[in-house]
Amino acid sequence: MSIADNLIKYKKELEGENVELIAVSKFNDAAAVLEAYNAGQRIFGENIVQELAEKAEALPKDIEWHMIGHLQTNKVKYIAPFISLIQSVDSLKLLTEINKQAAKHNRIIDCLLQVYIADEDTKFGLDHAEVIELLRSEEYLAMKNIRITGLMGIASNNAEEKQTKDEFQELKVLFDGIKVSFFRKEDSFKELSMGMSGDYKLAIEEGSTMIRIGSSIFGVRKIKHYKA
Ligand SMILES: *Cc1c(COP(=O)(O)O)cnc(C)c1O
Fold it and tell me: What are the Cα distances from residue 16, in Å, to 10, 11, 13, 41, 77?
């Protein structure tokens, strides 16, 4: 199936659901992104700053770019002018830098806090206590140029269905608690980004509002390093 066919399949599947499709285009070239764009897709996710910045420069300006990978503080400046959503905020230090760079461009940058839910050491993210600590901090409360619109999580790789479900449930419970405790009056806090090619159906059942789909749209990624 072509990229366009895959997108049509997802579009059909998501009809009537309150779920946004993020097409994860990492390691795929600009031509592949354009193919998806021409099939109507407008939101793309990338996990490497340089690749993201190059594609944003080369591709149509009505694309919404989401940063979904670990973001180093010293690289925020390269995406601050145009990024639509940073899904992978995993420290107060990073959020502080995003706020600073957003201010330089007179923007408010939407962010998700990435929560660690997997049973692995390799994934970035905050634990529950760290999320709460961040949201209570004076530094966060003083920030004027970021807006936290929800949470993001990555479930364990190759886990049993039951474990994946538990991990998504854990994130949903945290999301509901954070919503009530910190964002009760803010309609903008509404995104729960969970689910990838292998587990998005479970994620939607458990309350996801954003699924991040790469390989089942673009095919299995053949290269590890993108070249423009
Ligand atoms: C690569 C990636 C995805 C997409 O993964 P697929 O299994 O190819 O759908 C989703 N989220 C994050 C954070 C990723 O790095």
Answer: 12, 10, 9, 17, 37
What pLDDT sits at residue 123? Answer: 67
**pTM for this one?**
0.96
Instruction: Give the model confidence (pLDDT) of 125-152 as tens digits.
Output: 999 999 999 999 999 999 999 999 999 9
Query: Does CATH number 3.30.230.10 belong to domain 3-218?
Result: no
> Is pLDDT of 228 > 60?
no
CA–centroid distance for 149 within its chain: 11
Pocket residues: Cβ below 6 A from ligand 1:
24, 26, 47, 68-69, 154, 196-198, 212-215
CB atoms within 10 A of CB 120: 12
What is the whole-number distance in angstroms between the Cα of residue 138 and the centre of ligand 1? 33
Q: What is the DSSP letter of 78?
A: H
- Average per-residue pLDDT in the chain? 95
Whole-number Å distance, alpha carbon 11 to ligand 1 midpoint, is 18
> Nearest Cα to 199, choosing from 150, 162, 226?
162
Query: Do the Cβ atoms of 92 and 142 come closer than 8 Å?
Result: no
Number of H helices, E strands in the chain: 10, 8
87 CA closest ligand 1 atom index: 13
